UniProtKB/TrEMBL annotation:
Residues 2-101 form the Adenine deaminase C-terminal domain. This is Adenine deaminase. Pfam families: Adenine_deam_C. InterPro entries: Adenine_deam_C.
């Protein structure tokens, strides 16, 4: 239900980045517990100022960390994992990752 609530909200704002905390849910307010950065151009870009975007991203990171997110780059690191244009191999804070296999790639070559 939590994922559906957030997905439906993102659809109403024409796309964006969002964090939903079900502990803050309110039957009277559909957006209670939802922190979003609206990205209506076309679900990737914002017309907001860089200062406003940074402020909202800090709020989203704080909300995600309250839920247990420990990634060093916060929600932006998660957000970039979903982009279709990202190649099969990604450099992350945990190392070089084979996205399809979901595993860390050993980058140390044995020269013997």
């Amino acid at each position: 239900m939590a994922m559906a609530r957030l997905a439906n909200h993102l659809r109403t704002i024409d796309g964006g980045l969002g964090v939903y905390d079900p502990r803050l849910e309110d039957a009277e307010n559909d957006t209670a517990g939802i922190t979003t950065l609206e990205l209506p151009i076309p679900g990737l870009l914002s017309s907001k100022s860089s200062v406003e975007i940074a402020r909202i991203l800090v709020m989203a990171d704080d909300a995600a960390r309250d839920l247990g997110l420990t990634l060093s780059d916060g929600v932006m690191e998660l957000d970039n994992l979903t982009l279709e244009v990202i190649p099969e191999l990604r450099l992350t804070d945990r190392g070089f990752v084979d996205v399809r296999a979901g595993s860390i790639v050993d980058v140390v070559l044995d020269t013997e």
